[in-house]
Amino acid sequence: MRRILLCLSHSIEEHDQLDLLSSLGYEVASIGGYIDPAHPHDPKRPPLSHVPLVPEVRDAVDALGTDDNFGAAQSRIPEAILEWLGPIGAIVFHHYLEPRLFRQWEHLREWRRAGGRVIWRTVGQSVEHNERTAQPYRDDGLEIVRYSPRERNIPGYAGGDALIRFYKDPREWHGWVGDIRAVVNVTQGLKQRDPWTNWKFWEDSTRGLPRVTMGPGSEEIAGLGQVSLPEMRTYLRRARCYLYTGTQPASYTLGLLEALMTGVPVVSIGPSHMRIFPYGPDLFEGHELSPFQADDPGSARERIEVLLHDRDYAAAVSGWQRECAIAEFGRDPVGRAWLAFLGDPDLAP
């Protein structure tokens, strides 16, 4: 069986990726919060009891004896894990490229020469510096899986071997009813990270309207703070609409996909607000994925008020929006894309 090691930096994406690749038939292990899938270190997502623990990986990390075994293992993959991966294995990295990937490129050389694959899976954190720094490694065999077609607009773009979207399972994200007449948003540190999160746009668009914010730090703006996954899903199912404000430099985020897939009608901020980087407007994709774009808080408010007052109209939007989300970001199309890129999961190492 082909084996995959995840060296990721985003616990929710780690949960999703581990779940998906395992279900596709790969033997997958993570050096992170889901090293023991049944007992994750991060409460944002549930245990993956159906994903087998890989004792070889866990034991190799435990044996390091450092203050931060995860960090040490991510920055220098132990030989025991490379042996477990075998000659047709793959290691998938996220965006902490300098400490986790580039510094150990030579360390991985012999394993790569034997057939191992090293993959940078972009997750919305790439900027010009990352791209230009990655180019010589790309020339030396680094593979890149892009998450958005808009990334090609980053200056110094290092290319890509595949475009594979984030995904959400429509069997898990569904059931919109819209019986709470409120606009919602789920963002970590929405106000604290402004202007990266465009909190001012949210504030100006929704002031005086019934509104609910969720995510760590939202309690400082009269929000709910960090909530459980079931509670978040309940709000997405019951809220009348969602205002997406983006997170720079990301083209789009998992929060947007969860709203689209659930069916809560989404109004998105326009690309002209993505100006922390000169190429930000060309990188942003959220307005293209959402049913409605708002170039200013006034137009966002107008659209939100229509959705708040006309549930029948919101329901029609919900159904169309969810169909589009399933076609582009559903588990099935994204799973097929990973199979095409990684190859037959049943190959023996």
Architecture overview:
- Helix content is 39%, strand content 14%.
- The protein has 349 residues and is α/β, with parallel strands linked by helices.
- It folds into two domains: 3-167 and 331-342, Rossmann fold (3-Layer(aba) Sandwich), CATH 3.40.50; 180-329, Glycogen Phosphorylase B (Rossmann fold), CATH 3.40.50.2000.
- The chain has a six-stranded parallel β-sheet with strand order 2-1-3-4-5-6, with helices on one face.
- Helix 10 (254-262) links the parallel strand 9 (239-244) and strand 10.
- Helix 8 (199-206) packs across helix 13 (297-309), helix 10 packs across helix 14 (311-329) and helix 14 runs parallel beside helix 15.
- The chain is globular, with a radius of gyration of 21 Å.
- The termini are close together.
- The model has no long low-confidence stretch (mean pLDDT 96).
N-to-C CA distance: 6 Å
Number of strands: 11
Integer count of domains: 2
Secondary-structure content class: alpha/beta
Strand residue content: 5-15%
Number of helices: 15
Helical residues, percent: 25-40%
Could you provide a short overview of the structure?
The protein has 349 residues and is of the alpha/beta class.
Key descriptive features of the protein:
single chain, 349 residues, alpha/beta, Rossmann fold, 2 domains, six-stranded parallel β-sheet, five-stranded parallel β-sheet, 11 strands
